[in-house]
Amino acid sequence: MMNPAKPVALQILGKEYLVSCPDEECDALMATARYLDTRMQEVRSGGKVIGLDRIAVITALNIAHEMLQTRQELHALEQGLDERMDEIEQRLEQALVRCETAR
Hints:
Double Stranded RNA Binding Domain, 2 strands, elongated
């Protein structure tokens, strides 16, 4: 059973946000907030985006884009792995047939 949520204070771009979080997920939440803060600071320091809302949206778009690219790369790797496994399976079957006919 999950522990009840407790309030956790997060700092993002110098603002404090109080978020409820189960105790066992606090470390992950804090790491996520640090990552988000870093990414938002990068967008802000670029100087082209002004305003917290716009910085948040641009940062969210950047992170979502990277996530989708990573998913596509993972999918391509999985397909390549599936194809390779099929090739290995065919080779094993051929080797077994050769062994059986050699008897």
